[in-house]
């Protein structure tokens, strides 16, 4: 979702039992939100300045504790509110899914005319009210080393490690840290130092580990790595490689359906393998061992748009929970988006959204055209002063021209890189292509933080007001600003807020995003093609074809598809096959076919 968009989502939705995730990587944004919310609750605000030791982790810990206190007070207020139409307590229960036992109890309470029974049911319902979890996200790749003013490396003070420590020291209970963007051995090794992640009993954790993965193999590798340290992974969040928001970590042609099928078939095996390693590690440390594995949740996210798609994941694949990110950007009650950007999102169409090369990390990045950041970047290019001032330095990683890492979106890097390109005597076509890659890079630290600063009129960085937003391509099918209750009604099948009635199934959407990704990769690498790349492209092609074959087999009425759905699905699969065959990848890669 980005930095600012869910920075205070728990303070908006946790009181209704809805879980959400705060990115804790940008501590200056967190300090900004501390200032705002201390004023909001009329408590004194004491700044945590960069002059303090460990200021990064202190800011994170205090903000999470503040959020926890606010949510706890909100929940208590709901428990004491009156059961009447439009009340907060009524809203809490009305948003629940219809098959929820608590929702059924609530419906029973509203129907009964017996006064004594009604009061007993009200009392029982109040006892069932609980907050959604306040989870946090650490993007593992953002782990810049930090130094003292004297230039000495701060031990365990890198960005990701400090964020983890800040979370571990917080008062949050029944919470998870979500690791995304792959495995970071230094970060995973650091987990061993914290007893906060140990099981307090069978399946009992105050703070849990969740890992965002793209496939089963990634889950197994990362799960085993942590199990060897006596650390249990309580959830694997399977995210589509490309049909998601933010940074996109493409698989080698493996599609969401076949990936979830493998989790379905090997779920018990995964738990058994990890448990054996985990228990041995606990025994070696003289920690308490367990007689059976702790539960492992398998969740899925990336491009979901309808109740029927959600039900397919639950009923056919056995998924425990689903993540709905991008559509919630149009729910001001849940996410924080400045008004101009919200208007852009509301009017976004397919041509306005693309998988860009704008991220300084060198990872594909979903992008919405026309944002203030997009406009500002183009103006700088027109003035022949491309690049951004690098104030936050969370994405510094390039040492191509400097001994100290710098960010590829910075004006310093772009000036050096453009000078290099001009000296290489490239063909005009090659030069323009390489130049565009340089100029596309955009400051994300500030751009993804500014929506909250603008929305709440809190200064973030002087004279840097541009906003970047990174919705998944699914936003093109949602064009209405809706309430939290309307969104939950949509998710649970009580209404339909999708404005694009021709929206394909999310499996189909992902398939075509992968085909377009493959086409672009072929074009990008046409002039450096070798046998290794040919082998990669052939494998990618075969995986997509295999995925198409798999989808033909599962599209059945018993899996929630109507006859019209099946016809539409097959038509899309036929079209996808034709597009793939036109790439001529099954022979030695002939780029002229693209």
Number of strands: 9
> What share of the residues lie within helices?
40-55%
Major β-sheet, in short? Answer: 7 strands, parallel
Number of helices: 21
Kindly list the characteristics that best describe this protein.
alpha/beta, 45% helix, 9 strands, globular, 594 residues, seven-stranded parallel β-sheet
Summary, kept brief:
It contains 21 helices and nine strands. The chain is an alpha/beta fold. It is globular, with a radius of gyration of 25 Å.
Sequence-ordered SSE layout with sheet pairings:
Layout: H1 9-13, E1 20-23, H2 27-40, H3 55-80, H4 88-94, H5 101-111, H6 115-128, E2 134-139, H7 159-168, E3 175-180, H8 185-190, E4 207-213, H9 216-227, E5 233-239, H10 256-284, E6 297-301, H11 307-315, E7 321-323, H12 339-346, E8 353-356, E9 365-368, H13 372-382, H14 411-422, H15 428-440, H16 444-447, H17 450-455, H18 484-491, H19 506-524, H20 531-554, H21 563-581
Parallel strand pairs: 1-2, 2-3, 3-4, 4-5, 5-6, 6-7
Antiparallel strand pairs: 8-9
Account of the protein in words:
The chain contains 21 helices and nine strands. Residues 588-594 have low confidence and may be disordered. β6, α11 and β7 form a beta-alpha-beta unit. It is of the alpha/beta class and 594 residues long. It is 45% helix and 8% strand. The chain has helices at residues 9-13, 27-40, 55-80, 88-94, 101-111, 115-128, 159-168, 185-190, 216-227, 256-284, 307-315, 339-346, 372-382, 411-422, 428-440, 444-447, 450-455, 484-491, 506-524, 531-554, 563-581; strands at residues 20-23, 134-139, 175-180, 207-213, 233-239, 297-301, 321-323, 353-356, 365-368. The relative contact order is 0.10. α5 (101-111) packs antiparallel against α6 (115-128) and α20 (531-554) runs antiparallel to α21. Among the domains are: 9-108 and 128-327, no CATH class; 506-594. A seven-stranded parallel beta sheet has the order 1-2-3-4-5-6-7. Strands 8-9 form a two-stranded antiparallel ribbon.
């Amino acid at each position: 979702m980005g930095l600012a968009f869910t920075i205070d989502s728990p303070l908006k939705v946790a009181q209704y039992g809805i879980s959400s995730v705060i990115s804790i990587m940008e501590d200056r944004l967190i300090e900004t939100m501390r200032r705002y919310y201390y004023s909001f609750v009329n408590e004194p605000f004491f700044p945590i300045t960069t002059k303090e030791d460990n200021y990064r982790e202190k800011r994170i810990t205090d903000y999470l504790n503040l959020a926890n206190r606010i949510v706890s007070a909100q929940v208590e207020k709901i428990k004491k509110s009156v059961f009447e139409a439009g009340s907060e307590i009524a809203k809490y229960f009305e948003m629940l899914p219809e098959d929820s036992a608590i929702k059924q109890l609530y419906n029973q309470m509203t129907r009964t005319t017996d006064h004594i029974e009604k009061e007993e049911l009200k009392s029982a319902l109040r006892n069932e009210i609980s907050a959604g979890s306040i989870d946090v996200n650490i993007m593992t790749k953002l782990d810049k080393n930090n130094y003292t003013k004297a230039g000495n490396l701060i031990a365990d003070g890198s960005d990701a490690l400090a964020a983890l420590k800040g979370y571990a020291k917080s008062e949050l209970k029944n919470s998870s840290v979500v690791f995304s963007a792959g495995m970071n051995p230094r970060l995973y090794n650091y987990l061993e130092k914290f007893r906060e992640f140990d099981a307090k009993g069978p399946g009992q954790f105050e703070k849990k580990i969740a890992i965002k993965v793209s496939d089963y193999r990634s889950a197994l590798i990362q799960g085993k790595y942590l199990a060897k340290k006596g650390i249990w992974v309580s959830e694997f969040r399977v995210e589509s490689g490309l049909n998601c928001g933010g940074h996109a970590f493409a698989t080698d042609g493996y599609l969401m359906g076949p990936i979830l099928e493998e989790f379905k078939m090997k779920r018990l095996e995964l738990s058994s393998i990890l448990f054996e390693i985990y228990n041995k590690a606990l025994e070696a440390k003289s920690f308490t061992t367990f007689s059976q594995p702790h539960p492992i949740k398998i969740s899925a996210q990336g491009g979901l748009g309808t109740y029927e798609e959600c039900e397919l994941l639950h009923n056919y694949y056995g998924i425990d929970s689903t993540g709905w990110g991008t559509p919630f950007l149009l729910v001001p009650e849940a996410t924080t988006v400045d008004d101009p950007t919200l208007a852009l999102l509301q009017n976004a169409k397919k041509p306005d959204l693309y998988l860009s090369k704008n991220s300084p990390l060198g990872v594909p990045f979903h992008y919405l055209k026309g944002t203030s950041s997009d406009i500002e970047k183009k103006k700088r290019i027109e003035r022949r002063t491309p690049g951004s001032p690098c104030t936050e330095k969370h994405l510094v990683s390039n040492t191509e021209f400097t001994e100290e890492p710098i960010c590829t979106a910075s004006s310093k890097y772009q000036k050096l890189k453009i000078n290099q390109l001009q000296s290489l005597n490239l063909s005009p076509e090659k030069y323009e292509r390489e130049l565009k890659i340089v100029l596309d890079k955009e400051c994300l630290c500030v751009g993804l933080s500014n929506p909250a600063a603008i929305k709440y009129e809190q200064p973030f960085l002087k004279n840097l007001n541009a906003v970047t937003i990174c919705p998944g391509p699914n936003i093109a099918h949602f064009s209405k600003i809706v309430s939290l209750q309307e969104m939950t009604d949509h998710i649970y099948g009580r209404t339909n807020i999708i404005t694009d009635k021709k929206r394909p199934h999310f499996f189909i959407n992902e398939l075509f995003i992968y085909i377009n990704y493959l086409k672009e990769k072929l074009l990008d690498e046409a002039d450096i093609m070798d046998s290794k790349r040919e082998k990669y492209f052939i494998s990618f092609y075969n995986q997509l074809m295999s995925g198409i074959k798999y989808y033909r087999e599962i599209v059945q009425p018993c899996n929630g598809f109507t006859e019209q759905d099946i016809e539409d699905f097959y038509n899309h699969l036929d079209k996808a096959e034709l597009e793939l065959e036109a790439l001529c990848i099954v022979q030695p890669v002939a780029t002229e076919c693209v």
